[in-house]
Design a protein that fits this description.
The protein is an alpha/beta fold. Helix content is 47%, strand content 19%.
Length: 145
Amino acid sequence: MKGRHPYLLGVTGGLGSGKSTVCRFLSEMGCRVFEADKVARELQVHDGEVVSAIRSIFGEDIYFRDPSGRLVPDRKKIASIVFSSAQKLSELNMAVHPAVFREFRRAVTKAAEEGVMILVKEAAILFESGGEKGLDAVVVVAADT
């Protein structure tokens, strides 16, 4: 039914837990999937406010031109900094997570307009980022290692 708020399901889990497999299955069953981690990476390239904030946190040289000429963040350099500095990780999260939340709200609105019944929010750090707020349910995917 168009205009009706979709059921909002969070899917989270550790690295290699199978959350992407679960989300692929849900997608095949007709659910729409919002990949928060993918959106976060895209925002770090295409959202001017996010790019500006990241440059402010890590310095202008944290971005470089890739072979196609796009300005992209040096993810390895950022990772090495945030893994050794809780403060820098917090600043990065404050720069990126509000924009991801904004995009999720847009996805919810679009899903409602298109009559989507279930919208899945896949996020590795769903609880750590506060991304579970407003969801109807959350599935935590775990796998034996």
